[in-house]
Amino acid sequence: MSSSSSSIGGLPFAQERQAALEAVVGACQLVRRVQESLVSQETLEKRDRSPVTVADYAAQVLIVHHLTHHFPAYPFIAEESSGELRREGKEEMRARLLDHVRTVVPSIQDEAALLDVIDRGGSGVTKARKEEGEEAKSPSGLWWTLDPIGIFCVMREQYAIALALMQDNEPVLGVLGCPALPHDIADASSPVGCVLVAVKGQGCFMRSASKEAAEETKVSASSVTDSAQANFTESVEASHSSHDVSQRIAQKLGVTAAPVRMDSQCKYGIVARGDASIYLRLTSSSYVENIWDHAAGVVIVKEAGGEVTDLEGKPLDWSHGKKLSHNKGVVATNGKLHQAVLDAVQAALHENKL
User: Where along this sequence does the record place binding of Mg(2+) (predicted)?
Assistant: First the structure.
């Protein structure tokens, strides 16, 4: 494929959409199989102390391999690199990873090929040249960004495989695989495992995470206009977003419903489906967001009728490599409540001198 976008039947990015869905649905199935056989030795600890597993690497390998086969000119900015895996003492982990990957990508026959595919995930990163004081920059044209498994751990309930296609530093296609997320969180008998997909200008759709099920249903953000009737979704981990400040914002908005707490970009998914109306990412002043933690979720929420900005109401700026270095925090809503939420956020932050 060339570096220009493709279409089928007049719809922009139709081929990219199909290939991205194939990759993410396949990764969902692979991750579930790895999860079933996961043992403690297969968990690594990254410098930022978030869990990384064989499933994380395996998902990245499958998705990067599949998409570089179909779109070799599109670079990647993905979360994982092979640095930890290459270390002495990780021989057993590399062997286990290779065994899992071979079940879905038989052409990867040795560790060298495996590690090479993982590192293709950094092919789109343009590093700053320190001697000239340049900032990191994102690729031009079309490129992918990937979070292979956001907050994956056998002890966590929710995790997501988040893939986005960027065009000139704006997300135009998002696929969010949520293998453990029920289709309806209010229905205990609802099927578990869903994938949300959205292309700019084409709406947001949900389908099963099962390979056999291809039927898609259009989803929309909630129609709530009275903030007192809204509900929040927020991270389980207080370190990922300030629960205390969120509670103050909820009080200002008159929100009384208990927050829906879950990890990963599944939170964007439930805002897009209307299960929650507000998602706040309130991090410490020193923390800078990673682009792969938000790109897929942003296009999915917007195509469902919602809105996403930073805490000051500014659009997210994707043009600075791996980081959202020109933004602070994230506010995602159903759209109708966005300005009211921003006002409450600013008031609470001012009161807390944040």
Answer: 79, 147, 149, 293
Q: Name which of 113, 126, 27, 116 is nearest 75 in CA terms.
A: 126
Q: How many CA atoms lie within 13 A of 73 on its CB side?
A: 10
Tell me the angle at which helices 54-70 and 91-102 cross, rounded to the nearest 10 degrees.
50
Question: 288-342: per-residue pLDDT in tens?
Answer: 999 999 999 999 999 999 999 999 999 999 999 999 999 999 999 999 999 999 9
Helix (H, G, I), strand (E, B) or coil at 161: strand
Q: Is position 278 annotated in a ligand binding site?
A: no
**Region 14-218: CATH code:** 3.30.540.10
Residue 308 region, left (φ>0) first, then alpha (ψ -120 to 50), else beta?
beta
Give the residue carrying structure tokens 């700053």: 128
Length of the chain equals 354
Query: Is 270 labelled as part of a ligand binding site?
Result: no
Q: Give the tokens for residue 167.
A: 């065009």
- The burial of 188, by beta-carbon neighbours within 10 Å (0-12 exposed, 13-18 middle, 19 or more buried), is given as exposed
Instruction: Judge whether 343 is annotated as a binding position.
Output: no
User: 152, 174, 171, 172: which is closest to 163 by C-alpha?
Assistant: 174
| Residue 147 marked in a binding site | yes
Asked if 112 and 180 touch (Cβ cutoff 8 Å), the reply is: no
Residues of the chain with CATH 3.30.540.10: 14-218
3-class secondary-structure state, position 160: strand
Tens digit of pLDDT for each residue in 236-250?
765 555 678 899 999
- pTM for the model stands at 0.90
Q: Which two tokens stand for residue 258?
A: 């208990």
Residues spanned by CATH 3.40.190.80 within the chain? 227-352
